[in-house]
Amino acid sequence: MERSTIVRVHEGLHARPATRFVRLAKGFESDVELVKDGKAVSAKSSVKLMLLAVKENQEVTVRANGADAIEAIEALIGYLENPKAGLDDEDSQPAGNTGQEAAAAPNSVPAVSGAITGLRGVAASEGVAIGPAFAHFPPDIAGQGRMLQAQEIAGEIDRFHAAVSAVQARMDRSLAQDTLSAGDRGIIAALRDIAADDSLTSEAEGLIRGGNDAVSAVITAASTIAADFSAVDDHYLNARADDVHAVGRQICLVLLGQDDVSLETIPEGAVLIADDIGAWDLARAPLKRFGGVVCGHGGATSHIAIIARSHGIPAVLGLGDQINALRTAREVALDGNSGRVIIDPDAATRAEFAGRVEAAAKERAGLTVFKTVTPKLANGKVIEVAANIGSLEEIEAAQEAGAMGVGLFRTELLFMRHMHLPSEDMQAETYAALAKAFAPYPVIVRTLDIGGDKPIAGIEFPDEENPFLGWRGIRMCLDRPDIFKRQLRALLRAAVHGNIKVMLPMVADIGEVRRTRVLVAECAAELKADGVPHAAFDLGVMIETPAAVLIAPALAKEVAFFSIGTNDLTQYIMAADRLNPTVAKLNDVTNPAVMSAIEMTAKAGVAAGIMVGMCGEAAGRPDLIATFVKMGLTEFSMSPASIQRAKKTIMAMAGEGAA
Ligand code: PEP
Ligand code: MG
């Protein structure tokens, strides 16, 4: 017996809705399956259901066989058509790693004195910290490396099931704590579901029956299921691969009789030193006690970096093997603005860092009142202070800071965190989620800005002598309309849900804007013909090449806004590689050459009556904002951590009578 329907569960059968559906299904004796595109899976396994990747508005069939088949179909179809609540809040944000390179935030506190040396990693979350080192290096887990005798197998299966039960019980105890935040509860509940799901257990049990010891079986089973999650075209589900590994590790630890190395005992203000930190550890970690984080793995946009930024924890990541030098450190000082880490600092360094930490805390406390402020000049003109983000996980931090929308959504990440190009549907969902989160404020989505320096799966980049001067950004997109049109169609679809604006990176020639407009019109016509809801969006350009500055008056007549990308503009005006420390002195936005390029851009935009904003790192610099406002800029987009300070700076200008 079967019945088909259209799924109305908000954002599809992701973790929590899948669990609810499974719970409902398990209440019936009948065998129940869910079928999508001809593929049937048991409706009693949340892992299998999640891997079916059922999306909102897709057609599925519920199939039941047994005494209560009619009731089962009735209940399950009822849930799919009318879930009482869609996703819980904690499930609506995808988890997982992110990818774009974020530059260090401007350094508003004095730099570390030249005498202090140390290790250098990726400046992943701004701020300074000093505190006792808390080393977190969980041991590697390995199986026995021998095949079981036939008579050992039944006992090993019992041992395995007992370990699974122990892990479930531990997770239940964690969930029972009422101190858990909604987000952490969501993560632990998702892990609990995986631990309770028979996909992992039956896979592992099959391997034990084949003669593998339980630990080896769990490691292999977790890798197999994690690989399935990694292969789905859905970044929420991709991130579940880490969860499966985390659950597998917990089961193995119980089997080996080993205690988990827990972060729960981290002392107040300590600096966490680790090679890497998994989702399970992070979800249970008492982040409020963290003074700072230093890791061997991770970049500016890894999961831990995003969490650190959201919680205002200074972090230096990506130290590689240098992390081993910190294993025995007693005290650590770190500078999340410069990426510097100092082991066992001397008295002078300690005093300097302690002073900077205190000053930063005082400043932060004084800035929170600016969260809800709408900064205006003396003449009443509103200056927009928006956030630069690169993933949905960063929405909360941006909103918490008081962002008036998003001035730069870097889409590279969506492309970099997959082993294939993201589909139009997946992109449309992501951009729509952003638009909804910030409406009525604008969300400026930058079209794919990628080149040979950051290769991604699905696009073959040529070997180039100078990737920064090569086939990147709008140049690559216009040569690959298959990729570009998919993104433009997704943006047109998302524009229905809020205030989406689109901007083009690396523009150097007016023809690039015109050719994009032709493609946008083509996409809109195709969507119309297919009956897909869509809406027009404002098209703007980043001003980040000297050519764009020089043709700014002509460009301004063809676009709705400018956003000045000072990171690239500085490197191209000064001919000084932004990643090369030997020319760092030249790579200075305050150089008169760069400032005059910014002024020329502003003049051209103001004369044409279009909005001129800035989304490079200079946008968050309190020492420069007033100058830019006087040039005519009315929008500044920056890392969420800089937003309140920028609002304060603009309000101070108004106080001084600036119009
Ligand atoms: C810039 O170049 O200023 C900018 C904002 O873009 P990105 O740093 O991503 O190149
Ligand atoms: Mg740029």
Brief sketch in words of this structure:
It is built from 23 helices and 20 strands. The chain is of the alpha/beta class and 659 residues long. Helix 4 crosses helix 8 and helix 6 crosses helix 7.
- The number of domains is 4
Straight-line distance between termini: 72 Å
Name of the CATH architecture of the largest domain = Alpha-Beta Barrel
DSSP, total strands: 20
Helix content: 40-55%
The general outline is: globular
Uncertain segments? 85-116
**Count of helices?**
23
CATH superfamily of the largest domain: Phosphoenolpyruvate-binding domains
**Multimeric state of these chains?**
single chain
CATH fold call of the largest domain: TIM Barrel
Order of strands in the sheet with most strands:
5-12-11-7-8-9-10-6
Largest sheet: 8 strands, mixed
Global mean pLDDT: 87
Q: What is the CATH class of the largest domain? A: Alpha Beta
Give every kind of bound small molecule, once each.
Answer: phosphoenolpyruvate, magnesium ion
Radius of gyration: 26 Å
Strand content: 15-25%
Explain this structure to me?
Its cofactor is Mg(2+). It holds the Pfam family PEP-utilisers_N. Its EC number is 2.7.3.9. The protein has 659 residues and is of the alpha/beta class. The chain has four domains: 79 residues, HPr-like (Histidine-containing Protein, Chain: A); 146 residues, Phosphohistidine domain (Glucose Oxidase, domain 1, 3-Layer(bba) Sandwich), CATH 3.50.30; 107 residues, Enzyme I, Chain A, domain 2 (Orthogonal Bundle); 283 residues, Phosphoenolpyruvate-binding domains (TIM Barrel). 43% of the residues lie in helices and 15% in strands. The chain has 23 helices and 20 strands. An eight-stranded mixed sheet has the order 5-12-11-7-8-9-10-6. Strands 13-14-15-16-17-18-19-20 form an eight-stranded parallel barrel, surrounded by four helices. A hairpin with a 4-residue loop joins strand 11 and strand 12. Helix 4 packs antiparallel against helix 6 and helix 14 runs parallel beside helix 16. The longest helix is centred in the first third of the chain and has 24 residues. It is globular. It starts with a strand and ends with a helix. About 5% of the residues have low confidence.
